[in-house]
Amino acid sequence: MQGKFITVEGIEGVGKTTNMEFIHQHLLASGKDVVVTREPGGTPLGEAIRRLLLDPQYKGMNPDCELQLMFAARAEHLAKVVRPAIEAGRWVLCDRFTDATYAYQGGGRGLDTGKIAALEQLVQGTFRPDLTLLLDVPVEVGLARAGNRSAPDRFEQEKVEFFERVRQSYLDMARKHDGRYRVIDAGQPLAQVQKQLAVAMGTFMQASDATD
Ligand code: Z5A
């Protein structure tokens, strides 16, 4: 039996890191064998590419270069971590995936989504997440939460309008792919956010147990 692929998405400061451990523990408590990973990154080569992508010294990086680095890291990650785990029946919980490319490079940078779709086809074929948990907050809330950090990375240096486009792009994808997306109101207190996450995962696990 194949495992499942769950991705967690959202704008800057929405609470992904805070909630990844909660989701992980919830899956473990439900008896799932889980691999937790992230993008860009998840492999030694992918983490090296991540450092290039986030490094503020490359401010002004060409958007096509940024796009291809995202997919280069993803190709390595899929080949070395994600696909082998799923084929072995494990569940993979991933902090960001290709929807982040549509949101940041497509929505944020304004790249043609046809280019992104072509790379998605090249690197992934028909492989897609089974469930995407979109943590959603107004941009000012996310940025205020993230603002408490010290040195901002290359993405964190972007302006409010950039993150508004990213958020809108995520919400558009959630409407378009409503079978796989669950939108979580992450503006609520943490306990309420985690209640919503538990319901979304419970429904997903019930449905996947019924079809396996
Ligand atoms: N990127 C891309 O452009 N294209 C791609 O294809 C991919 C990625 C895959 C790195 O991602 C960058 O890569 C990312 C997009 C780009 N840049 N940005 N922006 P990342 O996921 O590593 O970076 P991030 O979005 O900045 O995530 P983060 O730093 O880990 O933030 P977060 O996980 O969403 O937030 P947090 O650290 O869990 O929470 C922030 C604060 O809020 C913290 O103090 C919490 O205690 C607090 N918090 C969390 N939840 C709550 C609630 N409910 N109430 C009150 N306070 C809360």
Topology:
Blueprint: E1 5-9, H1 16-29, E2 34-38, H2 44-54, H3 63-87, E3 91-95, H4 98-108, H5 113-124, E4 131-136, H6 139-146, H7 160-176, E5 181-185, H8 190-211
Parallel strand pairs: 1-3, 1-4, 2-3, 4-5
The structure holds ligand Z5A.
Ligand Z5A is lined by residues 10, 12-18, 39-40, 70, 95-96, 100-101, 104-105, 145-146, 148, 155-156, 186, 189-190, 193.
Architecture overview:
With 212 residues, this protein is an alpha/beta fold. It is 57% helix and 12% strand. Strands 2-3-1-4-5 form a five-stranded parallel sheet, with helices on both faces. Helix 1 packs across helix 8 and helix 4 crosses helix 7. The longest helix is centred in the middle third of the chain and has 25 residues. The mean pLDDT is 96. Bound molecules: ligand Z5A. Ligand Z5A binds next to helix 1, helix 4, helix 6 and helix 8. The site of ligand Z5A has 26 residues, from helix 1, helix 4, helix 6 and helix 8.
Short recap of the structure:
This protein has helices at 16-29, 44-54, 63-87, 98-108, 113-124, 139-146, 160-176, 190-211; strands at residues 5-9, 34-38, 91-95, 131-136, 181-185. With 212 residues, it is α/β, with parallel strands linked by helices.
Name its key features.
alpha/beta; single chain; 212 residues; binds ligand Z5A; 5-stranded parallel β-sheet; 8 helices; globular
* Chemical compounds bound to the protein: ligand Z5A
Measured on Cα atoms, how large is the radius of gyration? 16 Å
Counting H and I runs of at least 4 residues, what is the number of helices?
8
Report strand %: 5-15%
* CA-CA gap between termini: 8 Å
Number of strands: 5
